[in-house]
Amino acid sequence: MRSSSDANSIESGPLVISSATEHLSSGFLDGLTKLELHSILAAATLRQFPANSVIANQGDPAEHLFLLRTGCARLFYITQQGQKVLLRWLLPGEMLGGAAILPNPSLYLVGTEILKKSSAFVWRRDTIRHLATQYPKLLDNTLPIAAEHLTWFLSAHLALVSRTARERLAQVLFSLAQGIGHKVPGGIRLEITNEHLANSANITLFTASRFLSEWQRQGALKKGRGTLTVCDANRLFSLPV
């Protein structure tokens, strides 16, 4: 996995606000006027990031704030033992590296990796801090985003202690299908490996592979090389193992 220092992000040409924000829905930008939106985005750099690159490293100074415009990203955490724990998946419109907007200099608590070729608006810390004082709505918008992250982590922890391994994997598949899946004939396709699913559900690779094979035999999903098609997400919770 490449880090942000060698990800070779490419700065786009002159930023055209209307085309850059077309179809972009973001809670971070809610409630802003067109003039305010123009000023805020004009202060950003629109960058392209290759797949499998890390744009924010856990423990590094939070010097940049990102707003994902296209593509897909994911948060992760590296334990002291070197284990990579996969956390939330992030879609266009979501804010990354929120620690950069805090009043005091902070560190990134988790890492952020790009899963497929993506683009993002990027602000330096001093720039986004200045914009936040100029447009207080930006700070207001970060509070529900922080609450959403807390809710997700609470739900993940409760699932870990109260759900079976099969239920956790089913929930991961259901959530991913709803969030980042692509509709195809016969279901919703996910570009994901068994290892990624196992890490997301906090189960072993063997256990994940066993459940996926059983669900495939029962017609709930179809597996491919690096892909998985969920034929009926609701059946994942009702089919016997």
Corresponding CATH architecture of the largest domain: Sandwich
Number of helices in the DSSP assignment: 7
CATH topology of the largest domain: Jelly Rolls
Poorly predicted sequence stretches spanning 5 or more consecutive residues: 4-8, 10-17
Computed structural class: alpha+beta
Mean pLDDT: 84
From the alpha-carbon coordinates, what is the Rg to the nearest angstrom? Answer: 19 Å
Task: Give a quick summary of the entry.
With 241 residues, the chain is α+β, with helices and mostly antiparallel strands. The protein has helices at 17-20, 34-42, 125-134, 137-162, 165-180, 194-201, 205-217; strands at residues 10-11, 45-49, 53-56, 64-78, 84-90, 95-96, 111-124, 182-184, 187-190, 221-224, 227-230.
Features:
four-stranded antiparallel β-sheet; seven-stranded antiparallel β-sheet; 241 residues; Arc Repressor Mutant, subunit A; Jelly Rolls; 11 strands; 27% strand; single chain; 2 domains; alpha+beta; 7 helices
Give an overview in words.
The protein has 241 residues and is of the alpha+beta class. It folds into 2 domains: 10-160, Jelly Rolls, CATH 2.60.120.10; 164-237, Orthogonal Bundle (Arc Repressor Mutant, subunit A). Helix content is 36%, strand content 27%. The chain is built from 7 helices and 11 strands. The chain has helices at residues 17-20, 34-42, 125-134, 137-162, 165-180, 194-201, 205-217; strands at residues 10-11, 45-49, 53-56, 64-78, 84-90, 95-96, 111-124, 182-184, 187-190, 221-224, 227-230. Strands 1, 2, 3, 4, 5, 6 and 7 form a 7-stranded antiparallel beta sheet that branches. Strands 8-9-11-10 form a 4-stranded antiparallel beta sheet. 29% of the residues are buried.
